[in-house]
Every structure is written in structure tokens, then in C-alpha cells.
């Protein structure tokens, strides 16, 4: 990646994982926000590739991406904030990434001044554009929605652990060291960054129910009404982000209990991650942390999934390079 960036000659650069599928309308839509000269990076909505042989893990992965789409769409339209532009596919202005200061920071990022970060690259890129006066944007439209894969076995737990560690490290850095998000993206700071520091749902949900139970012990009817209302509200909070998925695939509503139970279990993952932040390896990708010294040739692809970028119908000033 670092070797490829200096070779790019186009004003827009797109990073793409090798397991994503784009609709034919994808490129014009991901490039459209760059008509605004303040936009430095653009992400897209994502969904899991639908397969016939779905597992417990693929269902959890599909729900994870659906929640992500909901949250990022909301914060984008509130104040333009996105906590992390996902590298599954993301577009940046090339001049931002070819800046020497960026290259130095990106290749020498440390956690606690001593642990080299092999992960967290998406978070660093997102923070960089915000800290240097650029805006980010999440293009949440069907025409710009990619399909991707996640682990379909227990490795999904390792992915969740890696994401949780990245969130702790990056959100702490954004909020308490760099601090730009407080005035540039106040709603995103509240809705996404601060959420990392919330107590686990297992504690907050049942803690609220217990306090409500104790506060209404003088009136049995009031207690029943209040606890019922609170349970309905909690259920709504667990369902609302998944409604687009259930609209597309109504039969998946039967997996809602699994989603709720895993949400409570995820609290343990989140706090295990907190106490293991010095672990900076990928964890879910075998061998990826062992090949840092391998020599690779610079590359820049101009053809993705049959779409000819060089000879397409895109405005010349927005011709991208895809890495």
C-alpha cells in the first residue's frame, strides 16, 4: 500500500479488498461526493454476500454490517462524521495520502509510544483527514453498496476482538489526544466515539430494569406498567438498526434472539479487548503479521470487475486509481 500510493497519478485513489463485489453504478456514485472540494474521503454502505449455506456466524456478520450502515448513515447526515471509513472499499484524494507528513505518520504509528500498530490503518486514515481540515462522507445508496465477506466460522470472534481493540485505541486517540472531533463532528463524537466507553449492555439494560423495579416497589400496577414499557423500549433499540435487513429478508427475523444474546456477549469481548490493547496484530488473518519485510512491486489497477476506468464515462478530473 505504502509503495503503491506514490505511483498513483490520478486525483482520486480507491482502496478495495479482493473479496468485494461492486454494482456497475458504483464508481460514479463513490466519486460524486468529491464534487465538494472539502471532501477528503468517501466510504460506502456494505452488506454481506448472501449465500444459501448460511451459518450462525454469517448471520451475525450480516447484522453487524447492517448496524454499521444505520449508524454511519445517521452521523453522516447529522454532522458529516464517520468514525471509521472502512478499507473494504474507500476513496481518498490522492494528494492527501501522498503528503510526506501523512506517510511518516502512517508508517510509524505507535500505541502508547512503544507498540507498532499493524492494524488500525482505516482508523488512522479517517482521523488524518478530519485532523487536517477535510470532511468525510458515507455514500449510503443502493447504487454504491458493495457486497463483502466476513468469517463464516468462529474466527468471526477474532474479528470482533480486533475491531473492539481498534475502536478503543482510535476513539481514545480522537477524543483525548487529537480532540478535533469535538468541534468538527459533535454528534458523531456523542453517538459513535463516546459509545465505546459506555458500560456493557448486560449491565446497563438489567441495571435499568433493577432500578426501575426498586423505584416502583410501592405500587405493583405502576411497576408492571413501567417494566413492560422499558422492556418494549429495549426491544425496539435492538431491532431498529436491523429493520432494513428484515425488510429485505423477512425470514431472518427468527435470528433476532441470536442477535440480542450475542449483543450481550459482545460486552465481554469489548472489555477483554480493553485489557489487551497492547496486542496489535491482526489475529484473524494467519501470516499477515509475518510478511512485513517482503518486497512487493508497486501496483495500480485501472480495471475492476469489468469496469474500464480509463475508458469509462467518468468525468476526466475524477478518474480514480484503484488499489
From TrEMBL:
It comes from the Eukaryota. Coiled coil: none annotated. Transmembrane segments: none annotated. InterPro entries: Glycosyltrans_GT2/GT47, Nucleotide-diphossugar_trans. One of its GO terms (molecular function) is glycosyltransferase activity. Keywords: Glycoprotein, Glycosyltransferase, Membrane, Transferase, Transmembrane, Transmembrane helix. It holds the Pfam family Glyco_tranf_2_3. One of its GO terms (cellular component) is membrane. It is found in: Membrane. This is Glycosyltransferase 2-like domain-containing protein. The lineage of its organism: Eukaryota, Fungi, Dikarya, Ascomycota, Pezizomycotina.
Amino acid at each position: 500500500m505504502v509503495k503503491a500510493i506514490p505511483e498513483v497519478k490520478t486525483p482520486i485513489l480507491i482502496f478495495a479488498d479482493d473479496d468485494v463485489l461492486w454494482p456497475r453504478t458504483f464508481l460514479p456514485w463513490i466519486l460524486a461526493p468529491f464534487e465538494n472540494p472539502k471532501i477528503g474521503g468517501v466510504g460506502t454502505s456494505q452488506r454481506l454476500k448472501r449465500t444459501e449455506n448460511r451459518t450462525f456466524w454469517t448471520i451475525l456478520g450480516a447484522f453487524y454490517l447492517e448496524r454499521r450502515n444505520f449508524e454511519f448513515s445517521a452521523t453522516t447526515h447529522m454532522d458529516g462524521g464517520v468514525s471509521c471509513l472502512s478499507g473494504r472499499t474507500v476513496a481518498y484524494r490522492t494528494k492527501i495520502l501522498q503528503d510526506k507528513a501523512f506517510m511518516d505518520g502512517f508508517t510509524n504509528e505507535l500505541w502508547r509510544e512503544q507498540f507498532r500498530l499493524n492494524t488500525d490503518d482505516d482508523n488512522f486514515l479517517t482521523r488524518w483527514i478530519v485532523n487536517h481540515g477535510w470532511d468525510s462522507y458515507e455514500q449510503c445508496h443502493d447504487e454504491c453498496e458493495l457486497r463483502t465477506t466476513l468469517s463464516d466460522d468462529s474466527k468471526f470472534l477474532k474479528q470482533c476482538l480486533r475491531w473492539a481493540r481498534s475502536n478503543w485505541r482510535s476513539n481514545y486517540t480522537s477524543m483525548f489526544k487529537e480532540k478535533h472531533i469535538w468541534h468538527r463532528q459533535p454528534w458523531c463524537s456523542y453517538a459513535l466515539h463516546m459509545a465505546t466507553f459506555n458500560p456493557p449492555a448486560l449491565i446497563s439494560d438489567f441495571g435499568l430494569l433493577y432500578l426501575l423495579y426498586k423505584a416502583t416497589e410501592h405500587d405493583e400496577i405502576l411497576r408492571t406498567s413501567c417494566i413492560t414499557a422499558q422492556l418494549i423500549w429495549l426491544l425496539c433499540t435492538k431491532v431498529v438498526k436491523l429493520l432494513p435487513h428484515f425488510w429485505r429478508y423477512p425470514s431472518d427475523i427468527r435470528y433476532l434472539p441470536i442477535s440480542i444474546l450475542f449483543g450481550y456477549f459482545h460486552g465481554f469481548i469489548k472489555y477483554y479487548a480493553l485489557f489487551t490493547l497492547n496486542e496489535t496484530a491482526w489475529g484473524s488473518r494467519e501470516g499477515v503479521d509475518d510478511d512485513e519485510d517482503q518486497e512487493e512491486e508497486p501496483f495500480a489497477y485501472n480495471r475492476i470487475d469489468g469496469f474500464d476506468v480509463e475508458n469509462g464515462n467518468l468525468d476526466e478530473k475524477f478518474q480514480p486509481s484503484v488499489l
